[in-house]
Amino acid sequence: MTLTDFEQAHLDLIRDYFASIESGVSTRAFFTEDMLQIEFPNRLNPKGQRSDLVSLIQRSEMGKKVLTSQHYEIVSAIAQGNRAAVEAVWTGTLAIPFGALSAGSVMKAYFAIFFQFRDGKIALQHNYDCFEPW
Q1: Concatenated DSSP letters of the chain
Q2: In whole angstroms, what is the distance from residue 96 CA to residue 128 CA?
Q3: CA of 31: how far to CAs of 18, 66, 90, 106, 119, in Å?
Q4: pLDDT digits (tens, 9 = 90+) for 103-122
Q5: pLDDT grade for 93, boundaries at 50, 70 and 90
Q6: Which residues form the domain of 76?
């Protein structure tokens, strides 16, 4: 199935979004003002979490204090209309000790992230994050 230019633009936006996270640049411009991010329960966040734009940006800023670097490798991506889904492998290098891990340790997780777009921006993001044991 061939992607439309519209759908390809959504996948390009996701790649740019991940690159922005990796470089530590603010991700605010990628989202609608009323965006919602839902992180389903996982090892790092056992109760899951719902974030609006303000809380998502705050969490991102906190993450910069916990990680010295992070990387997203997109394994697969698909887009249909105003929706896209990405399978990614995430790695993050700790700046501080976390649980049994020391500073400098690398965490790894497998993400399935589902996006919904409006006006060329992310309006809804669902994260299914599966972290390797630490």
Answers
A1: -PPPHHHHHHHHHHHHHHHHHHHT---GGGEEEEEEEEE---SSSTT-EEE-HHHHHHHHHHHHHHEEEEEEEEEEEEEETTEEEEEEEEEEEESS-BTTBPTT-EEEEEEEEEEEEETTEEEEEEEEEEEPP-
A2: 25
A3: 13, 23, 21, 28, 10
A4: 999 999 999 999 999 999 99
A5: very high
A6: 5-131
Q: Is the full-model pTM beyond 0.85? A: yes
Structurally, the chain folds into a number of domains equal to 1
Rounded CA-CA distance 64/13 in Å is 22
Whole-number percent of the chain with pLDDT over 70: 99
CATH code, domain with 54: 3.10.450.50
